[in-house]
Amino acid sequence: xxxxxxxxxxxxxxxxxxxxxxxxxxxxxxxxxxxxxxxxxxxxxxxxxxxxxxxxxxxxxxxxxxxxxxxxxxxxxxxxxxxxxxxxxxxxxxxxxxxxxxxxxxxxxxxxxxxxxxxxxxxxxxxxxxxxxxxxxxxxxxxxxxxxxxxxxxxxxxxxxxxxxxxxxxxxxxxxxxxxxxxxxxxxxxxxxxxxxxxxxxxxxxxxxxxxxxxxxxxxxxxxxxxxxxxxxxxxxxxxxxxxxxxxxxxxxxxxx
Length: 257
Prior knowledge:
Layout: H1 3-23, H2 29-48, E1 69-75, H3 80-91, E2 97-100, H4 102-107, H5 109-117, E3 121-124, H6 138-156, E4 162-163, H7 172-181, E5 184-185, E6 190-191, H8 200-208, E7 216-220, H9 224-239, E8 243-245, H10 247-251
Parallel strand pairs: 1-2, 1-7, 1-8, 2-3, 4-5, 6-7
Helix pairs in contact: 1-2, 3-9, 6-7, 8-9
């Protein structure tokens, strides 16, 4: 049972009990208001935190990995900066997983082909990554996923099976869309915040602090600061005997159909 279903059942039962008590003047109506507020808070947390697996199942890390293996993932490309990211990965003989936006692939098809050529993995990150995409209807979100699949297939000749929701946001419409398209949802448990934090040192510390076997690291190949952080991260992993693998390797799943 998804956490959402369990939470809803608990709150519905609690609500019925409270309404009954209020009708007999045993409780104040404020008790019901507090209950509803708590439900809103929990649901909001579930929407914003993919690791909560509130609306759908996602692979955020693999704690069963015994070897010192981690996965580095990149969102929002391909971008001109992606070429520099690829050079750094080549330098350290490391493979990454790139969750690409369909429109970005259409804008930079040669860079997308370069990702494939260098044996990295490409996953689906929707077609537009619109800032209001989290309120799209189920059908519109299905179109977002399928259009991005088409863009990826054009350059890879393979249908991607890995999907990461924009911003890591999930909701019932996204859950229904992913169930329809059949993708495996990939989250993360090491968020760098390289899109908002201006300090390389702080970003690197966020990633490396308490790093464990099977962790999934989130970076963005569209950011210049990520380039510097990536090289420092790879040096850290190398010195601490970590191996970097792609998402499909980390979870022993298929990246493409």
